[in-house]
Amino acid sequence: MTDSSAPPSSPKTSPQPGAQRETWSSQAGFLLAAIGSAIGLGNIWRFPGVAYQNGGGAFLIPYIVALLAAGVSFLLLDYALGHRYRGAAPTVFRRISRRAEILGWFKVGVSFVILTYYAVIVAWAARYALFSLNFAWGDNTADFFVKDFLGGGNPASANELSFKVVWGVFLPLALLWVVVIAILALGVQKGLERANKIFIPLLTVLFGAVVIRAVTLPGAAEGLNAFFTPEWGSLTDGKVWIAAFSQIFYSLSIAFGIMVTYASYLPKRADLGGSGFVAAFANSSFELLAGIGVFAALGFMANTQGVPVAELQGITGVSLSFISFPTIISMMPGGHLFGFLFFTSLVLAGLTSLMSLLQVVSAGFQDKFGWSGRFSALVVGIPSAVISTMLFATNSGLNTLDVVDKYINEVGVVLCAISTAVLVTVLHPRLGHLRRHLNVLSTIKIGKWWDLMVGFVVPAALAGMFAQTVIDLIKNGYGEYPGWYTTGFGWGSIILAALIGYVMTLTSWRTDVDDFKTMPLPKAHDNQKAAKGGRK
């Protein structure tokens, strides 16, 4: 099909996806949902450590470059695709080209894999919010987390895969799935939008309180100096720039279907450009706030132990939240309240992102089969919950999560981004149409620099990162895990996402997906005048 004309109708009787598509009640509702999806666990436990390990204050330079070049550019690409083609990821890419539908379903597969393990981290945080009230982790937070709470699990024990249920994880995880499925079943406005209107302001207040308490602790200044002191020599290290681009894609929820799906629920007249910049900068502002709070707390920990911040271990990922922070909480005055606020913030941040991941999968099935939002939430959510609890609420859950997270994010998500850029730039050129679509609807006009970023600069940078990652994983594996474990759960997660894409593409549509016309656009020269500040 061409971008401006509709293909012949397929011989179906069901309405086309998007014909009576739900919409956000307002631009603010969409923004809160987009920000809620972007602000997740990666902002709180990943960004501070990545920044510290890659040049401290100097890392902020490649980070800002990556935000403007890659983050905003690809976020706007997702917005334009979802809004112009009015559908979930599989619908959008089929409307560009029938052969491209498989890319949309691959994104659904990637989102499905991520949500199955992402949910268990939120469940852990919920338990730890309660543990904070009586410091249940005792004096050895590492042993408590790995052995007492999770029932074992370290790289060495990966030689023995165990599916023994850990009930302390299973029960809160099952309850979490009930809540998330119920929210999605209520629909876009009554479910997703209403939940984000509650969760995001509450998250901001709670985490703001965490940061205020952290910066008033003894030693906080040393922690902030460690976070912000620049190591200028790191700017010449390519790995630092790769880390910055990787963090932006990880935290903004771009390239694997979330923002495409969310943008499809916007009314036909919506400020896409302004929304993109607001969402991107709101997310990065929260990351910076998280860095301040985390490193102020780490400075207190180093001060208490009489060691430099540089000698602390476990300053990123799972170990930061569930080993280092409980240690800090136990040491500090008012630790019970601080711990409860911190882990409740993790729950809220994770919950909003988890809802968006499940909506990607649910929306794909709604479009394909004409299901209602409620029915799709149940059909998709229940199997997701079963797989999530079977794999990750077990003795081997921590190891499995670690491996799947590494491979699906650094291989699967990056592959989604590169494939999307190649599709809309080379295979089925759409960048000109998409930029004009953005400019017709945006207060902030997008120039041809966007075509260069999306079509060349960003995919080239991602391709380099992708090649380096894949070669390293093939040659060296991941950590201390045995080859069968990384093959089964690491590469296996990529294969599963690809199989979902292949099988669902072969499945017949029960809606008139091809009976669709894109919004008419002004002529290119008119849009160029608008981009320079003229009237559109």
From TrEMBL:
<feature type="compositionally biased region" description="Low complexity">
    <location>
        <begin position="1"/>
        <end position="17"/>
    </location>
</feature>
<feature type="transmembrane region" description="Helical">
    <location>
        <begin position="375"/>
        <end position="395"/>
    </location>
</feature>
<feature type="transmembrane region" description="Helical">
    <location>
        <begin position="340"/>
        <end position="363"/>
    </location>
</feature>
<keyword id="KW-0472">Membrane</keyword>
<feature type="transmembrane region" description="Helical">
    <location>
        <begin position="240"/>
        <end position="265"/>
    </location>
</feature>
<dbReference type="InterPro" id="IPR000175">
    <property type="entry name" value="Na/ntran_symport"/>
</dbReference>
<feature type="transmembrane region" description="Helical">
    <location>
        <begin position="59"/>
        <end position="81"/>
    </location>
</feature>
<feature type="transmembrane region" description="Helical">
    <location>
        <begin position="102"/>
        <end position="126"/>
    </location>
</feature>
<feature type="transmembrane region" description="Helical">
    <location>
        <begin position="28"/>
        <end position="47"/>
    </location>
</feature>
<keyword id="KW-0813">Transport</keyword>
<feature type="transmembrane region" description="Helical">
    <location>
        <begin position="407"/>
        <end position="428"/>
    </location>
</feature>
<feature type="transmembrane region" description="Helical">
    <location>
        <begin position="277"/>
        <end position="302"/>
    </location>
</feature>
<dbReference type="GO" id="GO:0016020">
    <property type="term" value="C:membrane"/>
</dbReference>
<dbReference type="Pfam" id="PF00209">
    <property type="entry name" value="SNF"/>
</dbReference>
<feature type="transmembrane region" description="Helical">
    <location>
        <begin position="198"/>
        <end position="220"/>
    </location>
</feature>
<feature type="transmembrane region" description="Helical">
    <location>
        <begin position="449"/>
        <end position="471"/>
    </location>
</feature>
<dbReference type="InterPro" id="IPR037272">
    <property type="entry name" value="SNS_sf"/>
</dbReference>
<feature type="region of interest" description="Disordered">
    <location>
        <begin position="1"/>
        <end position="21"/>
    </location>
</feature>
<keyword id="KW-1133">Transmembrane helix</keyword>
<protein>
    <submittedName>
        <fullName>Sodium-dependent transporter</fullName>
    </submittedName>
</protein>
<feature type="transmembrane region" description="Helical">
    <location>
        <begin position="491"/>
        <end position="509"/>
    </location>
</feature>
<keyword id="KW-0812">Transmembrane</keyword>
<feature type="transmembrane region" description="Helical">
    <location>
        <begin position="165"/>
        <end position="186"/>
    </location>
</feature>
